[in-house]
Design a protein that fits this description.
CATH superfamily: MetI-like
Order of helices and strands: HHHHHHHHHHHHHHH
Number of strands: 0
CATH class: Mainly Alpha
Helix content: over 70%
Largest sheet: none
Number of helices: 15
Shape: elongated
Radius of gyration: 22 Å
Structural class: mainly alpha
CATH topology: MetI-like fold
CATH architecture: Orthogonal Bundle
Length: about 300
């Protein structure tokens, strides 16, 4: 039996109504609500923080939750709540830039390979396969070690290793779309390749691109957390991230010393943010796949 694509995109008229079904999907609405909370947290981090996150206060080190610090303090006396609030900026920045890079690179490579075929498809797909067969996390770790650890390095590493799956999915969809009747009729009327791609093919793969890149954002956030936890993330004195908070907490033995308030808040924040993108991505999958929607 021929394997089914990840998401089957309907014709132009049907794909123009996908967002209406998205608004009626409870999973998508719940994920969007969680994501909106984190977006507001990142935008207004300076306003809703109760302390300066980088200010050291040794006399208040490792204090449990209280009225002054309702999520407690860390080894350096910093307010954990303020650290978690400001850490949302790095995670959302990494996820947003990764989504932009993946959507552009993956879409371009998938469109060119699927539409033109021939040696272009062969070359681009072999490049894609090369990135796919290399273990993702070890490659990210090696690149982070070779390059100087920083926020830009983390974004570059995640971006350059996250586009292949999107490229293959887009190529598979383009291969089916370019043989559709309306594309053949437009070609027979003298439409150039650029017009065919931008007017007939790209609008139909647009929801597919969005659905796949949304799921990749969740992977990007987890990867940034992993790299930061391994000490390969951004400088914690410059860019606070949830991964660096966890790395410092485990480095000081918080997990075995009962300092749960240093570990639980950033851990819960990571889970909720990843869950929001996952819920939105799978909701799009259900909406755009007619077979799943029928069930």
């Amino acid at each position: 039996m021929r394997p089914q694509p990840l998401i089957a995109v309907a014709d132009v008229e049907a794909s123009s109504r996908w967002y209406r079904r998205l608004l009626r999907n409870r999973s998508a609405v719940a994920g969007a609500a969680i994501l909106l909370i984190f977006l507001l947290m990142a935008i207004f981090a300076n306003q809703i923080s109760t302390h300066v996150p980088t200010r050291l206060n040794p006399p208040q080190r490792l204090k449990p939750p209280s009225a002054a610090n309702f999520l407690g303090t860390d080894e350096f006396g910093r307010d954990v709540y303020s650290l978690v609030v400001h850490g949302s900026r790095v995670s959302l920045l990494v996820g947003g830039v990764t989504m932009l890079f993946t959507s552009l690179a993956g879409t371009l490579i998938g469109l060119v390979a699927g539409y033109y075929g021939g040696w272009k498809e062969t070359g681009l797909m072999r490049l894609t396969d090369w990135f796919l067969v290399i273990p993702f996390l070890p490659l990210a770790i090696v690149l982070s070690v070779i390059l100087k650890p920083s926020l830009y390095t983390v974004i570059f590493v995640i971006g350059i290793t996250s586009w292949p799956s999107t490229a293959r999915v887009i190529r598979a969809q383009v291969l089916t779309l370019k043989t559709r009747g309306y594309v053949e009729r437009s070609r027979a009327l003298g439409s150039k390749d650029f017009r065919l791609v931008t007017r007939h093919i790209l609008p139909n793969v647009g929801p597919l691109i969005f659905a796949n890149t949304v799921l990749i954002v969740a992977i990007a956030i987890l990867t940034e957390t992993t790299l930061s936890f391994l000490g390969l993330g951004p400088d914690p004195t410059v860019n606070i991230s949830w991964g660096t908070i966890l790395e410092q907490a485990f480095g000081q033995g918080a997990a075995f010393s009962g300092y749960w308030w240093w570990i639980v808040p950033p851990g819960v924040a990571i889970v909720l943010l990843v869950l929001s993108f996952t819920m939105i991505g799978y909701a799009l999958d259900d909406i755009l796949n007619p077979k799943l929607r029928g069930r």
